[in-house]
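Quick start: what a row looks like.
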Amino acid sequence: MKCALCNNELILKNGHIEITTKKLGKALIPDIQYLECAECHDKLLTMEQSDKVVDFIKQQEAKQ
C-alpha cells in the first residue's frame, strides 16, 4: 500500500500513538496497530483501530 501524501511505502507497526483532543489535550493511545509511511511518517488506521481509539478517548473523558 502507498502513502496518500507522498506515495511512498506504508509499513505495518504496533505501538502507541499520540493524538490531541479538545477535552483532554494530548493523549497517548496504547497498543494500536497502524500503517506508517516510511518517508513522511503519516499514520493510517483501520476502522477497527479507529474505533479502539474512540473508545479509549471516551473512557478517558468520562474519568474527568
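That is the whole record. Residues 10 and 41 are 9 Å apart (CA to CA). The chain has one domain: 10-63.
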